[in-house]
Amino acid sequence: MEYALEGIKVVDFGMFLAGPVGARLLADLGASVIKVEPTEGESLRPISKEFELFHKTFAQAQAGKRDIAIDLKYPEGLAIAHQLIAEADIVQENFRPGVADRLGVGYEDCRKINPKVIYVSSPGYGSHGPRREYPGFEPLYSGFCGIHYNSGGKGNPPSRSASFDQFCGLLCANAILMALHHRDMTGEGQNVEVAQLKAVLYFVSEAFFLPNGEQGAETQVDANQTGFSAMHRLYQTLDDWIMVAFMRETEWQNLCNAIELPELLTDPRFSSYEKREENAEDLAAVLQDQFFTKETGEWFSIFEAQGVPSEVPLIEGEDLAMMNDDLLKDGIVAEHEHPWWGMLHVPGVAVKLSETPGISRGPAPMLGQHTKEILTELGYAPSRIDELAKKEVVLISTEEDPS
Question: How many domains does the chain have?
Answer without folding.
Answer: 2
